[in-house]
């Protein structure tokens, strides 16, 4: 069976938003880990010049991403908000961890939308932010669709005199629908005690140069060597993963002819493994150098694997494919100026008022217009710009969210956002002056 492989050199979020709904059978991603390191390929390797900074700032994410996540997954939005609070950062100086989680969250939401009902996703990470990513996967895919935490154990890498040697990564395996997921168990050798035959009834035993063993379903701890310095498949690309690891994942989660997506494809190990196993694949990377490397690497495999076809199927230049509007996913539009509902309709119930407060909180990325600091949704209130005593109603063009302190200090009077902020600065100055006097008196 011939396989088709497309490589897009572009932002993976835009690529995924232009792919059809429920069109992918398997997703593997090896994203940045928020390791705060700079990776660079050595001089003289095939990947020379490839590098990326795994360091995150809020300037790396777009303002509306957090709002979109909060609209689609309110609990996930609150989780990220709690991370910001935990880090003790103000809006102008938010944590790099929150930026990383927003970057990953908006992409995980798209990946769920792309997976077929029988599809699965394997998220590769390490202990740096893996515990945060698992919580995010629970929010997006549902805790009930968690299938496995796979430990990839290897020998390569450095060691520390202050910790145990760090020799494993973690891969989270989730299904779009655990009841309907396509999964194909594999067998592995389980050596008998003392390497001698058990001779149990109805148990098939085998012998190799090591000793006697039985075949059992593969466990969730995999020992696979990393790509060594003398390996034929080594490209020198930072964070390159071995083909054997991807082969195992692809065999377990797809059939021949299925479509495999890798939105952070790097040096194309996923595409190469897919080609060898007769699967179709889509790889996405932002580096043009990666695009050339991917093309050359797939071309070299074509010589050894005649079923791999590359004629006009590998695209090293990406342009968003035009799709019929009916196949595009409806996007959540967060407009700061326009009301979310017709301006003349008043919010009649407490639920409508809470929904309006959450929408404004999401649209403003949780930044209170009064004190201009980030505030958790739980500590917000719905404020009427023109108070009720002056005829103001709970309508979209007359309401905004404020933090509890700003709303209660405003009292029952009309104040613009700028006037609110000036009031906040005066209160802050007065508090600091009182603290200074108290310190002087002591």
Task: Describe the secondary structure blueprint for this structure.
Blueprint: E1 5-9, H1 12-16, E2 24-29, E3 37-40, E4 51-54, H2 63-72, H3 74-87, H4 96-114, E5 115-125, H5 130-141, E6 146-153, E7 168-175, E8 187-191, E9 206-207, E10 212-217, E11 221-223, H6 243-253, E12 259-262, H7 269-276, E13 280-285, H8 288-304, H9 350-363, E14 380-384, E15 399-403, H10 404-410, H11 417-441
Describe the structure.
- The longest helix has 25 residues.
- The chain has 442 residues and is of the alpha/beta class.
- The radius of gyration is 27 Å and the shape is elongated.
- The protein folds into two domains: 278 residues, Vaccinia Virus protein VP39 (Rossmann fold, 3-Layer(aba) Sandwich); 91 residues, DNA Binding (I), subunit A, CATH 1.10.30.
What labels describe this entry?
single chain, 442 residues, alpha/beta, Rossmann fold, DNA Binding (I), subunit A, 2 domains, three-stranded antiparallel beta sheet, 11 helices, 15 strands, 32% helix, 19% strand
Task: Give a brief outline of the structure.
By secondary structure, the protein is α/β, with parallel strands linked by helices. It has helices at 12-16, 63-72, 74-87, 96-114, 130-141, 243-253, 269-276, 288-304, 350-363, 404-410, 417-441; strands at 5-9, 24-29, 37-40, 51-54, 115-125, 146-153, 168-175, 187-191, 206-207, 212-217, 221-223, 259-262, 280-285, 380-384, 399-403.
């Amino acid at each position: 069976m011939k396989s088709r492989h497309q490589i897009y050199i572009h932002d993976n979020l835009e690529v995924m938003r232009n792919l059809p709904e429920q069109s992918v059978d398997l997703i593997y991603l090896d994203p940045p880990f928020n390791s705060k390191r700079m990776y660079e390929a050595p001089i003289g390797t095939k990947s020379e010049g490839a590098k990326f900074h795994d360091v995150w700032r809020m300037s790396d994410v777009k303002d509306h991403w957090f709002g979109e996540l909060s609209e689609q997954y309110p609990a996930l939005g609150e989780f990220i908000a709690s991370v910001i609070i935990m880090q003790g950062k103000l809006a102008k100086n938010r944590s790099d961890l929150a930026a990383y989680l927003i970057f990953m969250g908006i992409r995980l939401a798209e990946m769920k939308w792309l997976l077929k009902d029988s599809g699965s996703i394997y998220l590769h990470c390490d202990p740096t932010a893996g515990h945060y990513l698992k919580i995010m996967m629970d929010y997006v895919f549902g805790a009930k669709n968690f299938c496995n935490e796979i430990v990839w154990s290897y020998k390569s890498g450095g060691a520390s005199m202050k910790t145990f040697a760090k020799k494993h990564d973690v891969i989270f395996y989730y299904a779009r629908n655990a009841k309907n997921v396509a999964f194909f168990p594999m067998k592995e050798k389980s050596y008998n005690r003392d390497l001698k035959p058990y001779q149990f009834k109805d148990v098939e035993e085998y012998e190799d140069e090591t000793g006697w063993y039985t075949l059992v379903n593969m466990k969730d701890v995999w020992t696979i060597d990393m790509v060594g310095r003398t390996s034929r498949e080594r490209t020198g690309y930072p964070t390159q993963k071995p083909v054997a690891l991807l082969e195992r994942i692809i065999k377990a989660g797809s059939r021949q002819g299925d479509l495999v997506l890798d939105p952070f494809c790097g040096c194309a190990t996923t595409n190469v493994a897919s080609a060898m196993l007769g699967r179709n694949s889509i790889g996405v990377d932002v580096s043009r150098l990666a695009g050339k490397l991917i093309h050359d690497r797939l071309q070299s495999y074509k010589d050894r694997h005649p079923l791999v076809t590359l004629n006009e199927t590998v695209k090293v230049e990406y342009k968003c494919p035009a799709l019929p509007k009916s196949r595009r996913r409806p996007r959540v539009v967060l407009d700061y100026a326009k009301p979310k509902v017709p301006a003349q309709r008043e919010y009649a119930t407490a639920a409508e008022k809470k929904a309006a407060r959450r929408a404004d909180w999401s649209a403003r990325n949780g930044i209170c217009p009064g004190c201009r600091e980030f505030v958790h949704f739980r500590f917000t209130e719905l404020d009427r710009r023109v108070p009720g005593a002056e005829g103001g109603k709970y309508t979209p063009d007359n309401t905004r969210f404020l933090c509890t302190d700003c709303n209660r200090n405003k009292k029952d009077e009309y104040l613009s956002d700028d006037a609110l902020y000036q009031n906040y600065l005066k209160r802050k100055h007065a508090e600091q002056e009182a603290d200074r006097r108290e310190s002087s008196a002591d």
